[in-house]
Design goal:
The chain is an all-alpha fold. It has one domain (2-96). It is 90% helix and 0% strand. It is built from three helices and no strands. The protein has helices at residues 2-10, 15-87, 92-96. The N and C termini lie far apart (93 Å). The mean pLDDT is 86.
Length: 97
């Protein structure tokens, strides 16, 4: 684009032609810039949406695993308390003394 514009600028016959050429170049650059910004915005929006989905899935997985760990901990704690009580023939209050 730059070489063509420089070459065209050397061929203008008067100031009005140069001004028109500059306006055309400015308009074309502006349109290209807007199109590039739209494309970048679309790409970034897509990346954001994908990352959001990944994070939501990770949070769900983490929550599930945390709940499983809590349940496993409850079972282990219950078993640790109940086993000695079952092995002892003494009532609970005497066992605690």
């Amino acid at each position: 684009m730059g070489t063509k514009n420089a070459e065209a600028a050397t061929k203008v016959k008067d100031l009005n032609e140069l001004t028109a050429l500059q306006q055309e170049v400015t308009r074309a650059c502006g349109e290209k810039w807007v199109a590039n910004m739209r494309e970048a915005t679309e790409m970034l929006t897509s990346v954001r949406d994908e990352l959001t989905a990944i994070m939501e899935e990770a949070a769900k997985y983490t929550q599930e695993k945390a709940e499983q760990a809590v349940e496993a901990g409850k079972k282990v704690a219950t078993a640790a308390v109940e086993k000695p009580l079952k092995q002892s023939k003494k009532p609970l209050l005497k066992w605690l003394k």
